[in-house]
Amino acid sequence: MKAAVLVKNKVELRNIDLPKVGKNEVLVRMRACGICGSDLEKVFGKYGMKSSRIGHEPAGEIVKLGSNIKDFKKGDRVFVHHHVPCYSCHFCYNDDFTMCEKYQKSNIDPCGLSEFILVPHWNLSKGGLIRLPDNINFDQAALIEPIACCLRSLDKIKLKKASTVAIYGAGPTGLMHMILARFFGASKILLIDVNNFRLEFAKKIDQHVEVMNVAIMKEDEFKRKSIKFLGNNGSDVSVVSTSNINAFIQSLSITRRGGTISLFGVPPKDTEVNIDLNLIYSKELKILPSYAASEKEIHQTIGLMEAKIINFEPLITHRFPLQDSHKALLHAHQAKDSMKIIITAG
After folding, report:
1. Pure H helices in 263-334
2. Domain range spanning residue 15?
3. Has residue 305 been placed in a domain?
4. What's one Pfam family here (predicted)?
5. C-beta separation of 166 from 177 below 8 A
6. Do 20 and 136 belong together in one domain?
7. What confidence tens digit (pLDDT) does each residue in 96-113 have?
8. What's the pLDDT band for 84 if we cut at 50, 70, 90?
9. Preceding peptide of 19 cis, ω within 30°
10. pLDDT grade, residue 237 (50/70/90)?
11. Which uninterrupted H or E stretch holds 219?
């Protein structure tokens, strides 16, 4: 079978052996898999988390089951979650599921960008394979994981109705945060980026969002215009949905006293920042990193999709076949005319 493999900052499509299916495992034919910002960081940057596998947002259909599998059948349309926690360790007891050792070590084989995906017994036993409702197509299903991550981010910062929100980064997850923040009752949303295409794209999704291109304005102008829109206090919450460290630094000045910042975008490994710690202390800013999602947010996302409460499919701008995986990743990295990119197979 064919699979995308990361080799020295380039993704190559290689022929590898089809995984053998154990009695407690399932083999899934990949139909759609989204490209994530973390995939781009692995290929073009310095990814700081443990996994180097490419593609972790897959959906597909079951083609083979182990002899002990009774809850699924061949042909079932499924979403595959690559990481699953144990639900019984100290971290899980404290609802820090993504910090669970099993969560960070578990994975699918070989990756999401492959013709076939082996779902191990651990993932199956902990709810990492979920049958899709009939009204969710494969493209939509490929959005489940990133939307779930955004749900967790907003849950951690306790977004309240009528809150003012500043979002740094107008990429796919930035816009997912925007859509969800509006759904949860945000009164004002400021979206900040350096990419005009993406800012204009966001306005088509939400005409009431205020957009700012910080590439064409000085720092004092940005701060003045931000405060004018958000109000003298600044934003109640800020979401840093980019790995750009300048966005995090800007959020410290724009977020109000007592406000909360979600550090959502994965900072490159070995990132160092020179900031005035007294600013954080004196403003009592709460900075909450948000990494990945648990099955709780996965099921919440599926529920929102099934009920057709929010439509995220307009975020998809491009689809590439599996053999063009590197081209797709490069297109997403350049971001000249793209939002969410989906890889398809089968």
Report:
1. 277-283, 295-306, 325-334
2. 2-143+312-344
3. no
4. ADH_zinc_N
5. no
6. yes
7. 999 999 999 999 999 999
8. very high
9. no
10. very high
11. helix 219-230
Q: What is the pLDDT of residue 346?
A: 65
**pLDDT tens, position by position, 40-62:** 988 888 775 556 789 999 999 99
Sequence length of the chain is 346
Average pLDDT over residues 253-272: 94
8 — pLDDT class (breaks 50, 70, 90): confident
- Residue 203: the pLDDT is 98
Provide DSSP, 94-156.
Answer: TT-GGG-HHHHH---BS-SSBSEEEE-HHHHHTT-EEEPPTT--HHHHTTHHHHHHHHHHHHH
Q: Does 243 reside within a domain?
A: yes
Instruction: Say whether both 138 and 155 belong to one domain.
Output: no
Give CA–CA dist 212/90, Å, rounded: 42
Q: What is the CA radius of gyration of the chain?
A: 20
Residues 6+ apart with CB under 8 A from 171: 37, 193, 198, 241, 242, 335, 339
| 248: three-class secondary structure by DSSP | helix
Whether residue 139 sits in one domain with residue 14? yes
CB-based contact 220:250 (threshold 8 Å)? no
Amino acid at 168: Y
How confident is the model at residue 49, as a pLDDT? 55
In the chain, the amino acid numbered 325 is S
Same domain assignment for residues 133 and 157: no
Q: Across the chain, where does the E strand assignment appear?
A: 2-6, 11-15, 26-34, 58-65, 77-80, 116-119, 129-131, 164-168, 188-193, 210-213, 235-240, 255-263, 286-289, 316-321, 340-344
Give the CATH number, domain containing residue 87.
3.90.180.10
